[in-house]
Amino acid sequence: MPSYAMLIDAAKCTGCGACRVACQMQWQLPPERFYNRLEFREKGQYPKVKQEIFPVQCMHCDNPPCQEVCPTHATYKTADGIVHVNPKKCIGCKMCMMACPYDVRQTNEKGIVEKCRFCDDYIAKGEQPPCVTTCMNTVRVFGDLDDPNSELRRLLDEKQVFTLLPHKGTKPRIFYVSK
Amino acid sequence: MNYRTALGLFASLIAFGLIGTLFLLFKGHHIMGTSQQFPWGLLISTYVFFVVSSTGLCLVSSIGHVFGIEPFHAVAKRSVVLAIITLMAGFLVMGIETPQPLHMLYMMVTPNWTSAIFWMGSLYGVYLVFLFGEFWYMIMRENHAKARLFALLAFFSAIAAHSNLGAVFGFLHARPYWEGPYMPIYFILSALLSGSAILILLFYLHEGKDSSSPVVPAIAKLLTLFLSITIFFTIWKVLTGLYGHVPGKADAYRALLTGPYALNFWLLEVTVGMVIPLAVLLRKKTRKAAFTAAALSILGIFFMRYDLVMVGQVVPLDVIDQMPLPVTLLKYTPTWVEWAVVSLGIGFTGLCYLLAEKRFDLNSPASGPHKTSASTSSHADVVS
Ligand code: SF4
Ligand code: SF4
């Protein structure tokens, strides 16, 4: 069983937003809904100001609070690391949206919660998620943590990485390359 | 107000509510004022308002019925009836707020034991069953021993269900305004506050202002106590919230104290809901004073629930740990559709209560061993 994760080298991100659009195309989302987004932060003081960009999406946490709070097990995690939402079981209580510290869940027109699913059907066929393939600068590397030959594993072993909000104890599966 | 006018008033509230509900069902939940970043709105706080009322009625009436304190015997029957009705009103509002209510079946098929929402559904369900048991044996069967047993079960299930509702908020480590053990404790306190205020209102309207019944004065003492404790709780909650300028948390408190929720907080919650009622109760010991205090605190309590739910969401989540300053607060304004559902809940409560008052004998005292003359007082204003 693979163990999926993603590494994001945010320093290479141009902020073009192609990943967001590719994902919206993949899942046929209207413009106001998205499973991934870019967060912009300004650092430093004039005249030495620089902008940092953080691509953010569901972190497929290993200790996901969204799963813990879901009354019907509509939100569940599979052995490959992916956190899913089963639309047949979701009542739309939005408790998971409250519990997720990364603000990555949204409701669809039926009031059912959706989010990034690491394109599970797609990757089962050996493909890469469109947010990865569409990126002009290879900001995102997706792969199998347990595969010693994967690009992802190699980079994770090589580089210094961090996760967002580690103190929340969520154990994210999206890693960021330290600057 | 006579019975027919009251019926007409509540029926019109229901009619307006049904129009809003139909709009919601046909147009979809996006016509509410909530958004992706502000998922919970007026219907959630109204649900909380109703179930707090139900729990409060159960807890306050237990003082007489379960623990045998004299003047409170008289309130047991009306309390249990209104506790059932307000709980159903809460469920009604929640059912309308939930986009996929049929999927709730999965709470039984694949229950998640770690979910406070699962426990909320289950515990309030159990509580409703016990309330029905209490109602059945107390009003339909006049079996005081069994009624008392169910009242005891209802009391404990009310405590469990209601503190767990506090935990729905308190368990959310992503939301610093709610996180922690304060919420479950505060929910029990605020239930006691709501319960006493509602009972005063009810018995004042029922017994009239010149009655010599000891019910209203006795509950007025409780209301004074619970108001004072609520003020004490609120002071410490605000002080700890501001202290240390913790990002996310202190920002939320600033939104409450000096930001978009300041008018709600200072005017409706504090002045109308706590300070004036307490001052009125301390200055005058009359039934009329108790009634005024109770009516004002119920209004204040409605906005306490509103602020509690909204202020917890007003600060955007900072996922990077570098919140851009100054913090831009998220906005939420309820739409008419949401107010319509609130009106449905209020109309439903009023109408069901009036019908119950006509249909069942709620006048005779409930408790066998300690009969009291309190409840045989003059007939209601509202039911005359
Ligand atoms: S990022 Fe949020 S939605 Fe995704 S697994 Fe973690 S807590 Fe759940
Ligand atoms: S909104 Fe759906 S997925 Fe989220 S906690 Fe509620 S039932 Fe679970």
Descriptive account of the structure:
The complex is a heterodimer of chains A (179) and B (384). Chain A is of the alpha+beta class and 179 residues long. Chain A has a single domain (4-177), classed as Alpha-Beta Plaits (2-Layer Sandwich), CATH 3.30.70.20. Chain A has helices spanning 18-26, 65-69, 95-99, 120-124, 130-133, 151-158, and strands spanning 4-8, 36-45, 48-57, 75-77, 83-85, 106-107, 113-114, 140-144, 161-162, 174-177. In chain A, the strands form 4 sheets. A 4-stranded mixed beta sheet of chain A has the order 8-1-10-9. In chain A, strands 2-3 form a two-stranded antiparallel ribbon. In chain A, strands 4-5 form a two-stranded antiparallel ribbon. Helix content of chain B is 68%, strand content 0%. Mean pLDDT of chain B is 90; it is low at 368-384. Chain A binds chain B through residues 33, 39, 41-43, 54, 56, 65, 68-74, 88-95, 97-103, 106-107, 109-112, 164-165, 168, and chain B through 28-30, 36-37, 39-40, 98-101, 103-104, 106-107, 109-112, 114-118, 121, 168, 171-175, 313, 316-317, 319-322, 324. The complex binds iron/sulfur cluster (SF4) (2 copies). One iron/sulfur cluster binds next to helix 3 of chain A.
Describe the structure using short key phrases:
heterodimer, A: 179 residues, alpha+beta, Alpha-Beta Plaits, two-stranded antiparallel ribbon, 10 strands, 20% helix, 26% strand, B: 384 residues, mainly alpha, Formate dehydrogenase/DMSO reductase fold, 68% helix, binds iron/sulfur cluster
What letter string, H or E per element, gives the SSE order of chain A?
EHEEHEEHEEHHEHEE
Low-confidence stretches of chain A: none
Q: Given this structure, which CATH class of chain B is correct?
A: Mainly Alpha
The total of helices of chain B stands at 12
Mean pLDDT of chain B, to the nearest integer, reads 90
